[in-house]
């Protein structure tokens, strides 16, 4: 029995070491390896772009997004807003702002994926060359539409812009820590994959696709991480996304505490569910096809949200240390200690390069309170009977 328990704990420790090792490699590669600038001079070709904006009860925050997009459209481009299961005047506001609008009412099938699929069905009657998906609460950097479209045409692959979320002004430590974690997930780690010549995950906004590739995937689902699912489906069909960090899209975290908690619950439950559901299938497909891109995306997917990964590494070391005191093998404790060291190094390196402007050294000392504060969220996550739904969150600045 002692041997079995020791082997079991060592196996768990080794399994946890894999995503931490992937995380550390991505961080080091993103910072240490040279990066190629993927900015591309837009050409004067006759390509047609459709910008697809799914919107659910977004009448109060939609106007800046529409204004940013319309300012960058060519005469042959389209802006299509999908007013999905709205209870407010989102459709009327979008029409008044100059957008083409379609309305979808299907309360039995809620989710951003359904809205996107509905929009693509509408575009299919007169398909564009390129489809760009932008969330209804995002702001675009100057020239982002042209740059995304040009990169998509030249690379003939799905293109993911740098998508960052910003903490409201005067925000407390938990918001700034969340902003840092988002930077690690959507900026540092994809930079590492790009430097290694590997694809990235899709991030939900600032995504561009050649029209012909979208016909190979089914977007109609209630998954709260429909972007991640779409990227994996495209990779399985032979079209892994590429990261272009020079193209910028930004949004704000919810201003209210409850809105922030609800948003994190939806995202992290969706991510963890996708890890369980998709990682084994991707690894199997990567091995069978001998496809390095698929394997890289599977391993990247297997890295849990930053705070959850930190809780796992600390918890594993505590369990392994206790087992050593009780007379079991020290292998699990040694592996767990190395894993925690690697995790701390990856976070510290990321903070040095990408986090000091939002998390000064004195704030870093409060990170432990941010992580422990998320324990109730994970408790609710694993005890939840209903699936997270696509709802509007309050993104007003504090």
Strand content: 5-15%
Biggest sheet, spatial arrangement of strands: 3-2-1-4-7-6-8-5
Order of helices and strands: HEHEHEHEEHEHEHHEHHHHHHH
User: What integer is the average pLDDT?
Assistant: 87
End-to-end CA span: 56 Å
Give the helix/strand class. alpha/beta
* Helix share bin: 40-55%
Based on Cα principal axes, name the global outline: globular
Count of β-strands: 8
Tally of helical segments: 15
Q: What is the oligomeric state here?
A: single chain
Largest sheet: 8 strands, mixed
Q: Pick out the low-confidence regions.
A: none
Measured on Cα atoms, how large is the radius of gyration?
22 Å
Quick synopsis:
With 398 residues, this protein is α/β, with parallel strands linked by helices.
Keywords:
alpha/beta; 8-stranded mixed sheet; 15 helices; 8 strands; 12% strand; globular
Report on the structure:
The structure is a single chain. By secondary structure, the protein is α/β, with parallel strands linked by helices. Helices cover 54% and strands 12% of the residues. The protein has helices at 2-32, 62-70, 90-96, 112-123, 144-155, 173-195, 211-214, 226-236, 257-289, 292-301, 306-325, 331-354, 361-364, 367-373, 375-383, and strands at residues 49-55, 78-84, 100-104, 130-133, 139-140, 159-166, 207-210, 242-252. It has an eight-stranded mixed sheet, with helices on both faces. Strand 2 (78-84), helix 3 and strand 3 form a beta-alpha-beta unit.
SSE diagram, text form:
Elements: H1 2-32, E1 49-55, H2 62-70, E2 78-84, H3 90-96, E3 100-104, H4 112-123, E4 130-133, E5 139-140, H5 144-155, E6 159-166, H6 173-195, E7 207-210, H7 211-214, H8 226-236, E8 242-252, H9 257-289, H10 292-301, H11 306-325, H12 331-354, H13 361-364, H14 367-373, H15 375-383
Parallel strand pairs: 1-2, 1-4, 2-3, 6-8
Antiparallel strand pairs: 4-7, 5-8, 6-7
Helix pairs in contact: 1-6, 1-11, 1-12, 6-12, 8-9, 9-10, 9-15, 11-12
